[in-house]
Amino acid sequence: DVKVTQSSRYLVKRTGEKVFLECVQDMDHENMFWYRQDPGLGLRLIYFSYDVKMKEKGDIPEGYSVSREKKERFSLILESASTNQTSMYLCASSPQGALDDEQYFGPGTRLTVT
Amino acid sequence: AQTVTQSQPEMSVQEAETVTLSCTYDTSESDYYLFWYKQPPSRQMILVIRQEAYKQQNATENRFSVNFQKAAKSFSLKISDSQLGDAAMYFCAYRSPPGVEKLTFGTGTRLTIIP
Predict the structure, then answer these.
(1) How confident is the model at residue A98 (pLDDT cuts 50, 70, 90)?
(2) Which of chain A's residues have a Cβ under 8 Å away from the Cβ of B102?
(3) Which of A27, A61, B15, B36 is most buried, judged by most C-beta within 10 A?
(4) Do A105 and B102 count as a contact with CB atoms less than 8 A apart?
(5) Residues of chain A contacting B103 with CB distance shorter than 8 Å
(6) In which residue ranges of chain B is pLDDT below 70?
(7) From CA A31, how far away is CA B72, in angstroms rounded?
(8) Quick one: pLDDT at residue B107?
């Protein structure tokens, strides 16, 4: 079974703090993704990565950065957290080249910025 | 850019009945993939069913089936014999042609099962 884990289920941070969200997958997938999920807006792609040290901007990258130093780990960084970044963050992974293959999701991190 | 629209924010169905969730999308591509994902309360998102645009036959997975109308750019999900465990948020998603593997999601439909 594919397993995608995220470092925290719930996180509370203060405005201006630097926040790290970690995601680890155990299936040797090349692709990894970070989404944020907001009511009425669905899932929106923040960043994705095709390989180690590779990253691509998604639809809403502003205020975020990412790091992928190892294949299994993809980190989302909020350089200076703001209240409008309060959201559910979902990580996902998928194998490269299998176009009909699904993305496998982690349980999500609910981040509150106060 | 591709867009995915789910016009039903909430739906409800009696247990054992059938319900259809709607999804439309906009694309200029001829080959692509469509997915329905399910997110149960406080649980991980999982794939329900997938459809390749070139396949005319509608996909089926047990009680879940799709009605894929390529010309109308419509991709609805039918759940037969609804069960309490089907209660969840359902997201329709579109994947671009080869070389671009990211998904574009709709805004979701919250499905409630009435016992």
Answers:
(1) low
(2) 33, 45, 48, 58
(3) B36
(4) no
(5) 33, 43, 45, 103
(6) 1, 97-100
(7) 31
(8) 96
